[in-house]
Amino acid sequence: MLPVGAILVDFDGTACLHDVAEHLLMRFGDPAWADLDAAWLRGDMGNRETITAQAAMLEAPIEDLIAYALDHCRIDPTFPSFVRWARGHDVPVTLVSDGFGFYIEPILAAAGLGDVPVITNTWRDRQIVFGNGHGECIGCGTCKMRAVLEAQAPTDRVAFVGEGASDRYGALYADVTFAKDALVDHCRRDGVAFVPWVTFDDVRRHLDSVSELPGPVAPERCPGWRFP
Protein backbone atom coordinates (compact mmCIF):
# COMPACT_ATOMS: atom_id res chain seq x y z
CA MET A 1 0.00 0.00 0.00
CA LEU A 2 1.29 3.44 -0.89
CA PRO A 3 1.60 6.09 1.82
CA VAL A 4 -0.70 8.49 -0.08
CA GLY A 5 -4.24 8.25 -1.35
CA ALA A 6 -3.91 10.78 -4.17
CA ILE A 7 -1.18 12.29 -6.34
CA LEU A 8 -1.49 15.78 -7.80
CA VAL A 9 0.85 16.72 -10.63
CA ASP A 10 1.55 20.08 -12.28
CA PHE A 11 1.43 20.07 -16.08
CA ASP A 12 3.71 22.67 -17.71
CA GLY A 13 7.31 21.62 -17.13
CA THR A 14 6.24 18.66 -14.98
CA ALA A 15 3.96 16.09 -16.66
CA CYS A 16 4.85 17.87 -19.89
CA LEU A 17 8.53 18.44 -20.53
CA HIS A 18 7.88 21.98 -21.74
CA ASP A 19 6.14 25.08 -20.45
CA VAL A 20 3.52 25.03 -23.20
CA ALA A 21 2.12 28.47 -22.40
CA GLU A 22 5.59 29.97 -22.69
CA HIS A 23 6.19 28.26 -26.02
CA LEU A 24 2.90 29.58 -27.38
CA LEU A 25 3.60 33.11 -26.18
CA MET A 26 7.07 33.05 -27.72
CA ARG A 27 5.64 31.91 -31.06
CA PHE A 28 2.31 33.78 -31.21
CA GLY A 29 2.29 36.41 -28.45
CA ASP A 30 3.40 39.99 -28.01
CA PRO A 31 7.01 40.17 -26.70
CA ALA A 32 5.64 42.07 -23.70
CA TRP A 33 4.43 38.74 -22.29
CA ALA A 34 7.85 38.32 -20.69
CA ASP A 35 7.45 41.61 -18.79
CA LEU A 36 4.21 40.29 -17.34
CA ASP A 37 5.96 37.11 -16.25
CA ALA A 38 8.67 39.16 -14.54
CA ALA A 39 6.07 41.24 -12.71
CA TRP A 40 4.36 38.04 -11.52
CA LEU A 41 7.63 36.56 -10.26
CA ARG A 42 8.34 39.80 -8.35
CA GLY A 43 4.93 39.55 -6.72
CA ASP A 44 3.61 42.69 -8.40
CA MET A 45 0.80 40.75 -10.08
CA GLY A 46 -1.15 37.64 -9.22
CA ASN A 47 -1.11 34.71 -11.62
CA ARG A 48 -4.76 35.24 -12.49
CA GLU A 49 -4.09 38.80 -13.60
CA THR A 50 -0.95 37.76 -15.46
CA ILE A 51 -2.42 34.94 -17.54
CA THR A 52 -5.53 36.99 -18.31
CA ALA A 53 -3.33 39.64 -19.92
CA GLN A 54 -1.14 37.06 -21.66
CA ALA A 55 -4.12 35.14 -23.06
CA ALA A 56 -5.31 38.30 -24.77
CA MET A 57 -1.98 38.43 -26.64
CA LEU A 58 -2.56 35.11 -28.42
CA GLU A 59 -4.45 36.15 -31.54
CA ALA A 60 -3.97 32.95 -33.55
CA PRO A 61 -6.95 30.59 -33.92
CA ILE A 62 -7.10 28.03 -31.14
CA GLU A 63 -6.70 25.23 -33.70
CA ASP A 64 -3.30 26.68 -34.68
CA LEU A 65 -2.28 27.02 -31.03
CA ILE A 66 -3.18 23.41 -30.28
CA ALA A 67 -1.43 22.15 -33.41
CA TYR A 68 1.75 24.00 -32.44
CA ALA A 69 1.59 22.62 -28.90
CA LEU A 70 1.17 19.08 -30.20
CA ASP A 71 4.12 19.48 -32.55
CA HIS A 72 6.52 21.06 -30.05
CA CYS A 73 5.57 19.97 -26.53
CA ARG A 74 5.59 16.36 -25.41
CA ILE A 75 4.69 14.46 -22.29
CA ASP A 76 7.51 13.32 -20.02
CA PRO A 77 8.17 9.77 -21.28
CA THR A 78 8.12 8.44 -17.70
CA PHE A 79 4.69 9.92 -16.93
CA PRO A 80 2.42 7.34 -18.66
CA SER A 81 3.98 4.39 -16.84
CA PHE A 82 3.81 6.38 -13.59
CA VAL A 83 0.06 6.86 -14.05
CA ARG A 84 -0.41 3.14 -14.72
CA TRP A 85 1.68 2.23 -11.67
CA ALA A 86 -0.34 4.54 -9.39
CA ARG A 87 -3.61 3.18 -10.71
CA GLY A 88 -2.34 -0.31 -10.01
CA HIS A 89 -2.24 0.77 -6.37
CA ASP A 90 -5.71 2.37 -6.61
CA VAL A 91 -4.18 5.84 -6.20
CA PRO A 92 -5.55 8.44 -8.64
CA VAL A 93 -3.24 10.85 -10.45
CA THR A 94 -4.77 14.25 -11.21
CA LEU A 95 -3.20 17.09 -13.17
CA VAL A 96 -3.48 20.55 -11.61
CA SER A 97 -2.50 23.48 -13.81
CA ASP A 98 -2.76 27.25 -13.50
CA GLY A 99 -2.10 27.87 -17.18
CA PHE A 100 -4.25 28.54 -20.24
CA GLY A 101 -5.73 25.06 -19.94
CA PHE A 102 -6.91 24.44 -23.52
CA TYR A 103 -3.89 22.45 -24.70
CA ILE A 104 -3.71 19.94 -21.84
CA GLU A 105 -6.39 17.49 -22.93
CA PRO A 106 -5.21 17.35 -26.58
CA ILE A 107 -1.63 16.66 -25.45
CA LEU A 108 -2.86 13.98 -23.04
CA ALA A 109 -5.02 12.38 -25.71
CA ALA A 110 -2.08 12.27 -28.11
CA ALA A 111 -0.11 10.42 -25.43
CA GLY A 112 -2.90 7.93 -24.77
CA LEU A 113 -3.75 9.55 -21.44
CA GLY A 114 -7.08 11.11 -22.28
CA ASP A 115 -8.71 9.69 -19.14
CA VAL A 116 -6.39 11.47 -16.68
CA PRO A 117 -8.45 14.04 -14.71
CA VAL A 118 -7.45 17.69 -15.14
CA ILE A 119 -8.09 20.65 -12.84
CA THR A 120 -7.32 23.87 -14.71
CA ASN A 121 -8.67 27.10 -16.18
CA THR A 122 -11.11 27.25 -19.10
CA TRP A 123 -10.29 29.10 -22.34
CA ARG A 124 -13.03 30.96 -24.20
CA ASP A 125 -12.08 33.22 -27.13
CA ARG A 126 -8.77 34.34 -25.61
CA GLN A 127 -10.46 34.93 -22.27
CA ILE A 128 -9.96 32.64 -19.29
CA VAL A 129 -12.64 31.45 -16.89
CA PHE A 130 -11.34 30.57 -13.43
CA GLY A 131 -13.73 27.83 -12.40
CA ASN A 132 -11.19 26.18 -10.06
CA GLY A 133 -10.07 29.25 -8.17
CA HIS A 134 -10.42 29.96 -4.47
CA GLY A 135 -13.76 31.21 -3.22
CA GLU A 136 -12.24 34.43 -1.82
CA CYS A 137 -8.62 34.84 -2.96
CA ILE A 138 -8.00 36.03 -6.54
CA GLY A 139 -4.23 35.51 -6.61
CA CYS A 140 -4.20 32.31 -8.65
CA GLY A 141 -6.51 31.16 -11.41
CA THR A 142 -6.52 27.51 -10.40
CA CYS A 143 -5.99 27.31 -6.64
CA LYS A 144 -3.53 24.48 -6.02
CA MET A 145 -3.99 24.85 -2.28
CA ARG A 146 -7.70 24.14 -2.77
CA ALA A 147 -6.92 21.16 -5.01
CA VAL A 148 -4.67 19.63 -2.35
CA LEU A 149 -7.10 20.25 0.51
CA GLU A 150 -10.01 18.78 -1.45
CA ALA A 151 -7.95 15.70 -2.31
CA GLN A 152 -6.97 15.30 1.34
CA ALA A 153 -10.57 15.27 2.53
CA PRO A 154 -11.41 11.78 1.23
CA THR A 155 -7.92 10.29 1.08
CA ASP A 156 -6.11 11.84 4.07
CA ARG A 157 -2.63 12.12 2.50
CA VAL A 158 -1.63 13.71 -0.79
CA ALA A 159 1.59 13.83 -2.81
CA PHE A 160 2.28 16.90 -4.94
CA VAL A 161 4.72 16.92 -7.86
CA GLY A 162 5.87 20.20 -9.36
CA GLU A 163 8.68 22.40 -10.61
CA GLY A 164 7.65 26.05 -10.80
CA ALA A 165 6.59 29.11 -8.86
CA SER A 166 2.89 28.38 -9.40
CA ASP A 167 3.37 25.10 -7.51
CA ARG A 168 4.48 26.81 -4.32
CA TYR A 169 1.02 26.95 -2.79
CA GLY A 170 0.22 23.32 -3.49
CA ALA A 171 3.53 22.28 -1.96
CA LEU A 172 2.76 24.13 1.27
CA TYR A 173 -0.32 22.00 1.92
CA ALA A 174 0.69 18.59 0.56
CA ASP A 175 1.80 15.73 2.82
CA VAL A 176 4.83 15.10 0.63
CA THR A 177 6.21 17.34 -2.13
CA PHE A 178 8.43 16.37 -5.02
CA ALA A 179 10.27 19.45 -6.26
CA LYS A 180 12.73 20.41 -8.97
CA ASP A 181 13.87 23.63 -10.67
CA ALA A 182 12.29 26.84 -9.29
CA LEU A 183 10.08 25.00 -6.81
CA VAL A 184 13.15 23.84 -4.88
CA ASP A 185 14.03 27.37 -3.79
CA HIS A 186 10.43 28.12 -2.86
CA CYS A 187 10.29 25.00 -0.69
CA ARG A 188 13.52 25.95 1.05
CA ARG A 189 12.30 29.46 1.79
CA ASP A 190 8.89 28.22 2.98
CA GLY A 191 10.26 25.43 5.15
CA VAL A 192 8.67 22.69 3.04
CA ALA A 193 10.45 19.36 3.32
CA PHE A 194 10.73 18.14 -0.26
CA VAL A 195 12.02 15.18 -2.25
CA PRO A 196 14.15 16.14 -5.28
CA TRP A 197 13.19 14.44 -8.51
CA VAL A 198 14.19 14.35 -12.17
CA THR A 199 11.79 11.81 -13.70
CA PHE A 200 8.59 10.18 -12.50
CA ASP A 201 10.59 7.03 -11.91
CA ASP A 202 12.19 8.91 -8.99
CA VAL A 203 8.75 9.78 -7.60
CA ARG A 204 7.61 6.19 -7.93
CA ARG A 205 10.70 4.76 -6.22
CA HIS A 206 10.31 7.11 -3.28
CA LEU A 207 6.61 6.40 -2.75
CA ASP A 208 7.34 2.68 -3.04
CA SER A 209 9.97 2.85 -0.30
CA VAL A 210 8.57 5.07 2.48
CA SER A 211 5.77 4.82 4.99
CA GLU A 212 6.25 8.07 6.91
CA LEU A 213 5.65 11.45 5.27
CA PRO A 214 6.85 14.89 6.41
CA GLY A 215 3.33 16.32 6.48
CA PRO A 216 2.17 19.75 5.34
CA VAL A 217 3.39 23.13 6.53
CA ALA A 218 -0.19 24.36 6.04
CA PRO A 219 -0.05 28.03 7.05
CA GLU A 220 -3.41 29.40 8.17
CA ARG A 221 -3.40 31.76 5.20
CA CYS A 222 -1.69 31.03 1.89
CA PRO A 223 1.18 33.50 1.29
CA GLY A 224 -0.16 34.12 -2.21
CA TRP A 225 -3.45 35.50 -0.90
CA ARG A 226 -4.86 38.46 -2.81
CA PHE A 227 -8.13 40.20 -2.03
CA PRO A 228 -10.55 41.19 -4.83
Description of the molecule:
The structure is a single chain. The N and C termini lie far apart (43 Å). This protein has helices spanning 20-28, 33-42, 47-55, 62-72, 79-88, 104-110, 144-155, 168-171, 182-190, 200-209; strands at 6-9, 93-96, 118-119, 122-124, 127-129, 158-162, 176-179, 194-196. It has two domains: 6-19 and 75-209, HAD superfamily/HAD-like (Rossmann fold, 3-Layer(aba) Sandwich); 20-71, no CATH class. It has 228 residues and is an alpha/beta fold. Helix 1 crosses helix 4 and helix 5 packs parallel to helix 10. The protein contains ten helices and eight strands.
- The CATH superfamily title of the largest domain: HAD superfamily/HAD-like
> What's the helix-strand series?
EHHHHHEHEEEHEHEHEH
Helix content estimate = 25-40%
Write down the CATH class of the largest domain.
Alpha Beta
The number of distinct structural domains comes to 2
Described by the principal axes of the CA atoms, the overall outline is globular
Task: Report low-confidence residues grouped into runs of 5 or more.
Answer: none
Structural class: alpha/beta
Major sheet description: 6 strands, parallel
Query: What fraction of the residues are assigned to beta strands by DSSP?
Result: 5-15%
Q: State mean pLDDT (0 to 100 scale).
A: 96
CATH topology annotation of the largest domain = Rossmann fold
Q: What is the CATH architecture assignment of the largest domain?
A: 3-Layer(aba) Sandwich
